[in-house]
Design a protein that fits this description.
CATH topology of the domain at 16-62: SH3 type barrels
Structural class: alpha+beta
Number of strands: 5
Largest sheet: 5 strands, mixed, barrel
CATH architecture of the domain at 16-62: Roll
Amino acid sequence: MTFALKELSRLLAPEQTVVGAVVDVDGAVVRVATERGAVTARTLDVVAVGDRVQIKNGIATKSPVARLVFPV
């Protein structure tokens, strides 16, 4: 029976990672602008408007970014 429930949950909400930029922060809930539109998600990280985040399973985490400082 668990297979049917897993299949149904996969069909309703496929597991995929979405990347976007934070446009609004309200406590632990953030609004993220993605290529598909605005998405609301919860976050455990401290984020600010403009930060790049990735959303997986409804949780927004800071997205890894390229290194901006290079040792000389």
